[in-house]
Amino acid sequence: MIYDILLAIYFLGTIAGLWFVFKKAGIAPWKAVVPLYNIVVWIRLCGKSWRWYIYMLIPGVNIFCFLLLVQETAKVFRRYGFWEQLLAVLLPCIYLLWLGLSPKTAYVDPREEKPAKVSEARDWTDAIVFAVIAAVLIRSFTFELYSIPSSSMEKSLLVGDRLLVSKMAYGPRVIMTPLSLPLMHNTIVGTNGAVDSYIEHPQLPYHRFVGLTKVKRFDAVVFNFPAGDTILSAYPTCLVTYEQAVRDLGREAVLSGNAVHPMFGPLGEVKTRPLDKRENYIKRCIGLPGEDLQIIDQVVYIDGKPIETPKDAQTTYGVHVDASAVAPNSMNRQLDKVGVSADDIANAGPYPHQNSPMLTYANLPLTQEMSSSLAASGLCLVQRDTMEATFTRDLFPNDGRRQQSVDNFGPVHIPAKGEVVELNDSTLPYYLRVITAYEGNTLEVRDGKYYINGKETTTYTVQQNYYWMMGDNRHNSQDSRFWGFVPEDHISGKARWVLWSWDKDHHKIRWNRMFKNACAK
């Protein structure tokens, strides 16, 4: 509520400031309160060209132009001080009021008298400071560019895709970690992830402004990794999470900072990260708040009914080739032709069969269309794989009690805001992190009884909505099947369009992906 009040003060204060600025410039002050027309009058007051009207209609660009108009307003009142112009850009609601009410200021028509010149050093300083402030505001509250780093969403979104992510779609979040270097996420560029780009305290409370829409099924959503609140400094969270290391080695060993994992090696020191500085992930929203989800033979069921599998979703296949008829190089070219990446081909083999001319490409990620194309070529036998090996500790809720796999999973209930969930030995593993890590409560179990924030209870009322996110590369995706629900306050934005795509295997631009809808399934 407090943020909505501050936002109202910001805009109403700016309009009130324009009222007095217009009046001092000899313009009827009522024009300051007429939406859109006030912008037209303001542009004229600053002596800008007709192009500015167009700039103000472009999302993101209009924020830049708004701040620049405030700065230009200071100049037509002959106010050139660096700190004064910085205040104008940061707090126009205060500065414009002062400018319009102060007896020390007077308007000078820029068409009659040109603004005074400043030094080249000062000009560059102003430009850099202004650009950084504008970029931070645009990146935080309108849209951000996001690069696809891994293959977990292939073939819907490809490695090398550069996405435009809308922060306005679900409503922009308030910056929760204010003391951080601008335009850097969680580490300083050039330090190989060793130096944080922020100071963790103070932390501002979570707040989301009103958005254009709500999260819908099949949206491609960017969010902060829920299991990334505690990390191991030696490894990215997508490779091994803190909780996974604790399950494998024990909490005391991991917290010692000297733990050596048999698969990953030394894990490094344990660190924590604030919510908005956790790693950014992108997945497709599959389950919504209040729904029951289950996966049966790779098909997702919501509330007992099967839902559509994204057209470009991948699962793994075994591709068997007669080496006496098809050379490996020729087969590699065929795989490349249908869209298999060079990395996937290299990781898949081929592996020889003992006393047989057959070669096998194992765990090869393919879409249904790609597998059909390969099978129709007559060069190989294509067999769909199943991931039936159980991962009792690595799959959510990670308590080792359930026989489930990535292909046959659940059922699981996705909590919704206001729901009352029963607490018992069976449900607690599902809601433990909801109650503690995501909603900030303490929970104790004593003599079979549950105590939340010191009070005995048998139920818990959920405080926010949760979502179930999965990658389209179903057999190669670190997603909700491994770490559970995505809280609403972790959601950053909605992927809207592919603006640019670079094919690193063939060193060329993927022109056919330019301006592709990133949420297309």
Search tags:
single chain; 521 residues; Alpha-Beta Plaits; 26 strands
Task: Describe, in plain words, how this protein is organized in 3D.
The chain is an alpha+beta fold and 521 residues long. Among the domains are: 140 residues, no CATH class; 70 residues, Alpha-Beta Plaits. Helices cover 29% and strands 22% of the residues. The chain is built from 14 helices and 26 strands. Helix 4 packs antiparallel against helix 7 and helix 5 packs parallel to helix 7. The longest helix is centred in the first third of the chain and has 23 residues. The radius of gyration is 28 Å and the shape is globular.
Number of DSSP strands? 26
Query: What would the average pLDDT be, to the nearest integer?
Result: 88
Largest sheet: 9 strands, antiparallel
Distance between the termini: 36 Å
Strand proportion: 15-25%
Radius of gyration: 28 Å
Quaternary organization: single chain
* Gross geometry: globular
Helix content: 25-40%
Number of helices: 14
> Strand pairing plus helix content: what structural class?
alpha+beta
Low-confidence parts, pLDDT < 50 over ≥5 residues? none
Brief rundown of the structure:
With 521 residues, the chain is α+β, with helices and mostly antiparallel strands. The chain is built from 14 helices and 26 strands.
List the topology elements.
Blueprint (H helix, E strand, L loop, with lengths): L1 H23 L12 H9 L5 H5 L5 H16 L5 H9 L1 H10 L18 H22 L1 E5 L13 E6 L53 E5 L5 E3 L9 H8 L1 H5 L4 E2 L3 E2 L3 E3 L7 E8 L4 E5 L2 E4 L2 E2 L8 E8 L5 H11 L3 H7 L2 E2 L5 E9 L1 H10 L2 E5 L24 E5 L6 E3 L5 H11 L4 E4 L2 E4 L2 E3 L1 E3 L4 E5 L9 H4 L2 E2 L3 E13 L4 E2 L6 E2 L4
Antiparallel strand pairs: 1-2, 2-24, 3-8, 3-24, 4-7, 5-6, 8-22, 9-10, 9-16, 10-11, 12-14, 12-15, 13-14, 17-21, 18-19, 19-20, 22-23, 24-25, 24-26
Helix pairs in contact: 1-6, 4-5, 4-7, 5-6, 5-7
